[in-house]
Give the backbone structure.
Amino acid sequence: MAGHSPNSGLSRRHLIAAAAGALSAAALPATSRAQAAGPRPLTVEAAAKLGALPGKAVLGAPGTAPRITELVDFNTPEWRRSARDMRELLAGDPRLAYAVVQAPRIDVRSLEAARVALAVLGRGVDLFEAFYFDLAERDGPIDGVVALGAAQRAGLDRYQIFNRSIQPQYTEDLSRAAALASALGVIDTPAYVIGDAVYAGYLDLARKRALLAAARP
């Protein structure tokens, strides 16, 4: 990686090579930058894909309702704001389940970081949560090396996480996340599923609270 020692064993060249095989399969549809304004209904097809999706990180109270699912790319401008909203929502609602789906589309950096995130999730949701919020508090672009640094700060071995991140299972996970995004009609992230509706584009904290309240039985 540019600016990193060639002796580190985790060069940007290695991470790009690992990510390249998943790039075309995991990229979100790019036919248009426009997204429909307002919510759209969650279709039966999309609900089935979401329910069966591997690699979801479910924070908070899994299995409870209401539930919010967010599709994320670590390098979109609104991701950090949404992550901070998530932390506040979880702190204030012990019944909330908040699911995170890695849906990278910006560039190879995002794909690298998504693969590291999936590898961290494989070690446990608590470690993923620490990793996720650590990244949200740091400025600048997020690539594989930056993500590995957050994994290390969460208490994980960066070399083990790197080796896990290049496994083929994560290519499949990202490909299925891309298929979910297509079924949801999502082009850019963040995007959210709350109740039976899909919301494209950043929702502020007040709006999320209102939608979650409305989704309660």
